[in-house]
Amino acid sequence: MDSSVFKNSKFLFILVTAFLSVMGIGVIIPVIPFIVGKIIGAGKVNEIALYVGLLVSTYSFFQFFAAPVLGALSDKYGRRPVLLFCQLGSAIGYIIFGLAGSLWMLFLGRIIDGTTGGDISTIFAYIADITKPQDRGKYYGIVGATVGFGFMLGPTIGGILSNISLSAPLFFAAGLTILNMIFGFFILPESHAKEARNADFSMHHLNPFTQFGFVAKNKLLTSLLIVGFFYFLPFAQLQVLGSVYFKDILAWGPTNIGFFFLLLGIGDMFTQGYLNGKLSAQYGPLKLVFAGFVATAAAYGINALLPLFPQNAFAYLFIVIYALGSGLFEPSFGGLISQAANPGEQGRVMGVSQSVQSITRIIGPLLAAFLYQFGHSTPFVLAVILSIVGIIILDQHKEEIHKHI
Hints:
about 0% strand, 16 helices, mainly alpha
């Protein structure tokens, strides 16, 4: 792949697919409480919060089980059919959610979307197929920047389209996803050569725990996934608690909170899409993972101190440091995971990695909500502690990692 990646139709499809995966989640955020309220009654505030939480967790729960299976299927049958299948499933999930007139239809929509929501792992496997190991961090950074753009733009689109109807954001996401699937059907070549595919494939590969057991045989991969758990669990707490925290501490309204996430998305895009690629060639992925982990830990520490210094400046300082840290860590970490896996295992390994992130998105919101009652800063104090543990584990395996990069 040359430097003009954006002129490359197959990479363009990969970027659009990554964008839609996150945007589709984002467009639901502004409307989901109102859709639930429309079904069960707008005055049932506590029940609405409960069902919103359950719907969010349902998506992550099914993604956890499906991602490694989809990855294993892509190792056997190729990346192309899995990516196209995931696009179709997401579109169906959006449509069902948008048409839902009952709670069971809402859950069905999220189950279908979660089950086919493991396409990020296959996207990373596709990139691993067509790039050199030393270049993967750069391309993962471009994909990460695209994901950041989707994270930033999704809620904005959802809020605007909700003025048409509560279902309009879902139908919009479904339409884009179907168009992208058609685009991919005609232009996306298979990246996983038949001779490199996993010949040993049977029904036991469809068991997600089989994929975890397979990856567990590789001690380096296991160690890296444990490090990833300690990075993504604090992030999951931030995702669910950030808006509530800034509302309570700084008395921010929806506009302030929206602007906060806009800046966070822009910062993440810049770091992953530009800065990471520049620094990766000079310092290598392991140093960037260390630097990113330390920076995000420091950012959580700043957030934990916010009640003592309730100034907007501290919140924006958090944005700068956190965007820098996450932008350095995530694509470089994806590169390390990829380099630790064999060519015929990229799909299942990336699938397991995505499942680990799904676990954090199931645990994180519940843990953050529980800790918040003991003090607004408590979840972020824990985030610092978890980050330090992850950094220590990473440091203990740095020599072993050096042998594989």
